[in-house]
């Protein structure tokens, strides 16, 4: 899953990034309003960690722009300003949660998992499609109750698909989510083809009922196998 940290305080931003990367998130950063607007305009994220007070603009304006663009990112406001007015304004503009500084990194992690679980998984802790069950808390994948061994990128790709069942998935969007924003600068996506090929083999060998289907000229679709 891919996160965007919008935070101007370099030490805090770097601390958050290192901590969240250890939890296997793909983490991108924006130190100011201008960079934040460029990133949310060009890329998609599973969750945005947003400071209200930025040196060249307001985090609330970022929220307003997300709403105008009809983006579906989960947003957690992270700010030293802990007034009721700021909380209400942020939540009214579409933020999913509000965390006041200073905070413990463990609480930040818990808040991220909570909003993603609530908005992407219908409140369930497990992600299920057909006979495939994925547990984001311990990175385990079960097929008919038996564990499937995947490498990190195979797991990340499977999670991306399972969060978007029966939806067409563009190759570039998949690459950005799993490898990070700057992957859009590569010449080709051969590395994705190799990972998906191996993942499809493992799913088929384990008897998974869903499958990853190639959609010519576009990308892929994670769908239940037709009887």
Structure characteristics:
2 domains, Rossmann fold, 227 residues, four-stranded antiparallel beta sheet, 8 helices, alpha/beta, Arc Repressor Mutant, subunit A
List the helices and strands and how they pair.
Layout: E1 2-6, H1 10-22, E2 26-30, H2 33-42, E3 47-50, E4 53-54, E5 57-58, H3 59-68, E6 74-79, H4 84-92, E7 97-100, H5 105-120, E8 127-129, E9 132-135, E10 140-143, E11 146-147, H6 152-162, E12 168-170, H7 171-179, H8 190-205, E13 210-215, E14 219-224
Parallel strand pairs: 1-2, 1-3, 3-6, 6-7
Antiparallel strand pairs: 4-5, 8-9, 9-10, 10-11, 12-14, 13-14
Helix pairs in contact: 2-3, 6-7, 6-8
Model description:
- There is one protein chain.
- By secondary structure, the chain is α/β, with parallel strands linked by helices.
- Helices cover 41% and strands 25% of the residues.
- Helix 2 runs parallel beside helix 3 (59-68), helix 6 (152-162) packs across helix 7 (171-179) and helix 6 (152-162) crosses helix 8 (190-205).
- The mean pLDDT is 90.
């Amino acid at each position: 899953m891919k996160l965007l940290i919008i935070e101007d305080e370099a030490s805090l931003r770097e601390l958050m990034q290192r901590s969240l990367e250890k939890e296997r998130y793909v983490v991108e950063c924006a130190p100011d309003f201008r960079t934040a607007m460029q990133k949310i305009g060009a890329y998609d994220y599973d969750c945005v960690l947003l400071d209200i007070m930025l040196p060249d603009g307001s985090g609330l304006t970022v929220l307003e722009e997300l709403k105008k663009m009809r983006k579906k990112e989960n947003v957690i406001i992270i700010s030293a300003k802990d007034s009721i007015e700021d909380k209400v304004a942020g939540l009214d503009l579409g933020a999913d949660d509000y965390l006041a500084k200073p905070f413990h990194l463990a609480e930040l992690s818990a808040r991220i998992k909570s909003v993603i679980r609530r908005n992407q998984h219908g409140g369930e802790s497990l992600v299920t499609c057909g006979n495939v069950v994925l547990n984001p808390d311990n990175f385990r994948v079960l097929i008919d109750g038996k564990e499937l061994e995947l490498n990190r990128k195979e797991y990340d790709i499977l999670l991306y698909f399972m969060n978007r069942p029966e939806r067409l998935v563009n190759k570039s969007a998949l690459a950005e989510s799993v490898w990070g924003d700057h992957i859009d600068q590569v010449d080709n996506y051969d590395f994705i083809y190799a990972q998906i090929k191996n993942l499809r083999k493992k799913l088929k060998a384990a008897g998974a009922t869903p499958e990853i289907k190639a959609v010519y000229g576009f990308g892929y679709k994670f769908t239940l196998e037709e009887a």
